[in-house]
Every structure is written in C-alpha cells, then in structure tokens.
C-alpha cells in the first residue's frame, strides 16, 4: 500500500531517496483537501488567470485542462491544475453560491438542515444559538445580551426597529414572559383578549393582573388595586339596560354606558379619588332586576376622597326607572359612606324578602322623588350607629310593606317638611317604627292619601317626633303604640 485510503496521501518508503518530495506532495494534498472553499461550482472551463491556491468544483461536461474531471475539486498550484476526486460526505463552501455543499457520491448538493429541507436562511425549521432548539422553542438563544439594531437611513433603512408578536385570534396570547429558572414571574402583552395586560406571579402558576389598558378607551385599570384617578371636576357615568359592563360608562349609548348600577358604583369605589367632587350615575328608563338574592346596588366598600355620589333616574317620571329585586334589598349599604349618597327619581320594589333601601353603615343617604312599590320588608330601613336617611323632597308610595320606615340601633331618619303621596291605599303592618335609641323626625310633613295598618310603633327608647301632630298624624287604619321607653312626640 503506497498511499492513505481516504485522501490518497503518499507514504514514505523505508529506503526511499528524496523523501522530501513525497512529504511535500502529501502536504499539497492536505492543503487542497482540508477546509475546502471553492470559488465556483458551475464552470466547465478553467479560468484564464487563476491565483495560486484557488479551488473550483469542476462542473459536468468540462473541457480543456478540466476535461474528464467532472465533480472533482480542482486546485491551481505551481502553474498546473491538481484534481482531488471527492468521496461521499465531503463538504465544500461555495463562494459564488454562498452555500455549503455536500458530495453524495455522484453529485454536489446543498447541505440539508434537520428534516431534509435544503439549507436556506429563508426556510429553517428551527435555530439554536449557543444552545439546542426544542420543538416548542424553534428559535432558542443562550446569551448574556441580545441586541436588535435598526438599519440606518444611510444604509437604505428607516432608522426604526420594531419587534412584532402576532397571534391568531383575540382569545389567544401574544406576550413576553420574564422568568426565574423558567418559572414565570411577570408577563406583558395581549393575554387572552386584545387589551394590554401586565401580570405578575409568585409561583409561575397563579397570575394576577397588575395593570390593564383598555384597547378602546386607553383607560388604565388596576384590577388588583393601585393608583386612583384624581377627579378635577364632577363626573357622570351612564347606565342603560342595553349597555355593557365592559364599557367605560362615559356616554349615554348602548356602546358607551354600563349595564348595571353595581358596575358604575364599583368603578367609582375602586378606581377614583373624588377629591371632593360629585359623581352622578344617570340611570336610563327600564327595569333593573338582578338574579334572586342580589341587590341592584350593594355598597360593600366606601369610595375615596369625600365628595358625594348620586344615583338618579328619570326626573319627569321616576317610575320609568324600576329597581326590582327578589330575596334581596334593592339598595343596601354595608360600608361607611365618606359623603352623601343621593338616591332619587327611581322606583324601588322587592319580593319574597328585602327592603327598598337598607342602610346599615355610618353615613348619610339622601332620598327624593322616589316611588316606593310593594316591599317584602320595609320601604326604608336604617339600622346602624351613625346611619342617617334624610328625605330632601317629596315622594310617592304605591305599594304596601311590613313597615314604610324603620329606624333602629341608634340610627336616625329625617323626613321633615315634605309631602308624601299614597296611592291605592297600600297596606302596612306598621307605617312608621323607631326603636333601639333611634330617632325619626317627621315634623312638618304632610300626607296625601291613606293606608291600612297601625300608624306607628315606638319601643326600646326609640323616638318618633311629629312636632306634636297627634296620634293620627301617620296614615293607617289602627292606632299606634309605644312600649319599653319608646317616645311618640
């Protein structure tokens, strides 16, 4: 055997003279065969003035000095062409093609990427930079820093650079996740809808919305609590039966108004600092009847910044705006009121159980121009220390109840100097009740129409003050009564 099996490098014989010739020949073959970079792969005739060391893959059908050398690697050295016959698996880089080629035993072809697709920067199935790419992470980069640099205008670019993440549909997600050991801790983007979300997580499993940017209005919401909007003027929110609680509430249209009074109040309580101003919830005509056991408005948290809140309907025909509940108070408070809560120009009714207005927290409720329909319990109930209901204008009663008004648990009720109109002779167990060291002031009020039932009951050190109007002051068909220190004055 006189040469190596793969590259054909000549062996030096034991007693060979001029060994340097054989050694130099082997070096020349190595220089031709190692790290092969060829100028071209399509030529059939040799170049006229090749540089020493230039290499080419001879194309099929070659002529001249290359005749019969198709597919061979031709190297110009010492004014002559040398040819290496490739074996299957040899690779060369073609400068002209800007591509890596491999010899398959019969022809040269582009090196294939994973999956057998011809190598192309436009058709990579996956790419790992300094790491392996996984099937779910087709582009994977392991680096201390990653830089995206704009193409300058001088280089025919725009000078801008944008990273776009595009999802298939609104319910899908396009986001960026920040992780600790591949466990997510923060995420921003379009997560599950087309609003912009900023989320955080303590464990990578339970995520909380910290910020939400409404795509339609641009308003910033704080779903988990946060900075409040400071009002610099009075504000009005609108509620309509054809509204939507995902709306912003700023316009009196189906596409702008809230659907429920509860949503309007929750926005006020959770997102605003009233700064001493007044927020009005303007309720359009219609019936507002939540599911059984649910109030139309439940004040479970106070608003911030003082000022006042008004819930108002139709001033011309209050009965056109009906708040109707089953097994629940129509309007209920369980949190202190930072300022007056005004309820006017509405009709209230309840069935099975529930008061029209149930005030069980400190603070003032102002009522006016209401229509009280039938109530399962009381039309107006106040029952907590510091709770105060005051009538600021006359109102109408069209339906019966166990009591029209109840003041208990050291609360107060002031229904003074107005006209109360009763229609249809509504029936009550007792019209007015005060107990538990509470005070109800009805002085100066007059009644139009009649009712059935006891006129009043005062007990447990409660006080009803009529300004000395006498025992027949209240509507009813039977006499009132006092007990346990109750005072009727």
From TrEMBL:
The name of this protein is: DUF2793 domain-containing protein
The UniProt entry, under Pfam families, shows:
DUF2793 (PF10983)
Question: Which InterPro entries does the UniProt entry name for this protein?
Answer: DUF2793, Pectin_lyas_fold, Pectin_lyase_fold/virulence
């Amino acid at each position: 055997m006189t040469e190596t099996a793969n590259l054909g490098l000549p062996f030096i014989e034991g007693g060979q003279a001029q060994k340097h010739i054989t050694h130099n020949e082997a070096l020349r073959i190595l220089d031709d065969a190692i790290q092969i970079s060829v100028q071209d792969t399509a030529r059939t005739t040799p170049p006229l003035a090749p540089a020493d060391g230039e290499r080419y893959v001879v194309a099929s059908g070659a002529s001249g000095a290359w005749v019969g050398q198709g597919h061979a690697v031709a190297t110009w050295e010492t004014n002559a062409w040398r040819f290496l016959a490739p074996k299957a698996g040899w690779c060369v880089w073609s400068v002209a093609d800007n591509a890596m080629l491999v010899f398959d035993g019969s022809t040269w072809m582009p090196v294939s990427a994973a999956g057998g697709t011809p190598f192309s920067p436009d058709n990579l199935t996956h790419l790992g930079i300094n790491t392996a790419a996984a099937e779910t992470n087709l582009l994977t980069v392991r680096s201390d820093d990653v830089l995206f640099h704009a193409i300058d205008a001088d280089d025919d670019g725009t000078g801008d650079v944008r990273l776009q993440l595009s999802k298939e549909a609104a319910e899908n997600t396009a986001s960026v996740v920040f992780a600790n050991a591949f466990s997510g801790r923060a995420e921003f983007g379009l997560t599950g809808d087309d609003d912009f979300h900023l989320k955080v997580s303590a464990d990578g499993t339970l995520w909380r919305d910290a910020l939400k940017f409404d795509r339609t209005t641009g308003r910033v919401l704080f779903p988990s609590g946060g900075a409040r909007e400071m009002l610099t003027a009075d504000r009005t929110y609108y509620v309509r039966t054809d509204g939507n609680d995902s709306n912003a509430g700023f316009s009196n249209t189906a596409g702008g108004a809230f659907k429920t009074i509860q949503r309007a109040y929750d926005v006020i309580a959770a997102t605003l600092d009233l700064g001493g101003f007044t927020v009005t919830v303007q309720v359009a005509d219609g019936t507002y009847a939540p599911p059984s056991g649910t109030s139309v408005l439940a004040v479970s948290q106070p608003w911030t910044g003082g000022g006042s809140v008004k819930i108002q309907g139709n001033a011309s025909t209050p009965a056109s705006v009906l708040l109707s509940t089953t097994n629940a108070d129509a309007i209920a408070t369980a949190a202190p009121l930072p300022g007056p809560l005004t309820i006017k120009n509405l009709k209230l009714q309840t069935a099975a159980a529930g008061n029209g207005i149930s005030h069980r927290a400190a603070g003032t409720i102002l009522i006016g121009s209401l229509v009280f329909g039938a109530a399962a319990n009381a039309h107006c109930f106040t029952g907590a220390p510091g709770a105060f209901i005051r009538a600021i204008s006359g109102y109408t009663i069209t339906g019966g109840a166990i009591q029209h008004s109840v003041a208990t648990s050291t609360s107060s009720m002031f229904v003074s100097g107005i006209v109360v109109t009763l229609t249809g002779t509504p029936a009550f167990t007792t019209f007015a009740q005060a107990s538990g060291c509470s005070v109800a002031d009805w002085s100066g009020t007059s009644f139009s129409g009649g009712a059935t039932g006891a006129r009043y009951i005062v007990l447990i050190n409660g006080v009803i003050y009529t300004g000395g109007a006498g025992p027949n002051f209240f509507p009813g068909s039977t006499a009132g009564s006092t007990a346990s220190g109750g005072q009727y004055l």
